[in-house]
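We were asked to recover a plausible sequence for a given structure. The inputs and outputs are reproduced exactly as logged, with field labels preserved.

PROBLEM: sequence recovery
POSITIONS: 305
GIVEN STRUCTURE:
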């Protein structure tokens, strides 16, 4: 049987959230199936058959992400299939009414429409969502944006995964993703490594930012703000709950943003970082009570307390 690494990680992360913070149970049950389906779709995409974008070292050194200016139609079939597979679950978790659901169904049946949404998301062309919403009256632009991100996620994360070494061979010190250009939704300090030789456990603690769209994790300076590059100690601050020190808010008072961080040296297993955010809403609420804005607005960090 083919293994399902992404799906297994989502399952374990949802279980641990429900166990640790029962108050998030409802949310985990409402969005869990969507996360699981996205992970299954990602696991089901065969790296070997997926078209690969060109990894241009000169472009990366100049701070230009791989997918910027790239023809996304090479994955048109994958995006279209993903959209149809996700549609029922998206409609359910967003609580769409019948009219919205059927309008969205009509719209997403055309692969060109799906590609248009994906392209607009990568290009940051927000006007496209407004215009499409006006044209297809029943579907709000915020729903179209959320749909486009959910369609992007499994496909682009498989694309990022398929790039493997060709990506890590290139240096990248930006605060946005080298693959798709999106900002991070969370960061992690890498887990300790067990060496084969003498079972010594050590190392870890390197900082990686996690892309909010394609899920790629890239190395970043540990003591700097990913939004503005500020590395002065006086204007950066870390908050955490006394009994859960490995889940933190990293705040930058220079630009007024924060990003959550999980120290994986203190975790038993590597969580699914997209799912894990659902169990950290209390930190987002705390950060916003300090007048800080999330580096990347998501469904979780914009929830009203
Ligand atoms: Zn990305
Ligand atoms: Zn900053």
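RECOVERED SEQUENCE:
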């Amino acid at each position: 049987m083919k293994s399902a690494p992404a799906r297994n990680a989502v399952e374990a992360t949802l279980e641990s959230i429900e166990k640790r913070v029962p108050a998030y149970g409802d949310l985990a049950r409402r969005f869990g199936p969507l996360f699981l389906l996205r992970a299954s779709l990602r696991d089901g995409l065969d790296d070997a058959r997926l078209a690969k974008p060109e990894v241009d070292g000169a472009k990366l050194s100049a701070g230009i992400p791989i997918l910027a200016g790239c023809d996304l139609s090479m994955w048109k079939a994958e995006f279209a299939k993903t959209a149809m597979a996700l549609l029922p679950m998206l409609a359910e978790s967003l609580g769409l009414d019948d009219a919205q659901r059927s309008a969205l169904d009509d719209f997403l049946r055309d692969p060109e429409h799906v590609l248009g949404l994906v392209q607009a998301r990568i290009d940051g062309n927000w006007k496209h969502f407004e215009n499409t919403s006006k044209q297809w009256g029943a579907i709000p632009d915020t729903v179209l944006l959320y749909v486009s991100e959910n369609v992007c996620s499994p496909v682009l994360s498989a694309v990022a995964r398929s790039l493997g070494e060709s990506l890590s061979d290139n240096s990248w010190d930006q605060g946005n993703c080298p693959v798709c250009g999106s900002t991070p939704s969370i960061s992690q300090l890498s887990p300790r490594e067990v060496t084969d030789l003498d079972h010594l456990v050590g190392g870890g603690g390197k900082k990686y930012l996690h892309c909010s769209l394609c899920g790629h994790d890239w190395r970043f300076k540990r003591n700097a703000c990913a939004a503005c590059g500020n590395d002065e100690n006086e204007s950066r601050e870390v908050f955490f709950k006394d009994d859960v020190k490995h889940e933190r808010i990293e705040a930058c008072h220079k630009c007024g943003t924060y990003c959550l961080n999980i120290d994986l040296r203190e975790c038993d297993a590597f969580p699914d970082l997209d799912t894990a955010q659902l169990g950290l809403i209390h930190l987002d609420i705390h950060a916003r009570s300090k007048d800080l804005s999330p580096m990347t607005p998501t469904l979780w960090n914009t929830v009203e307390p």
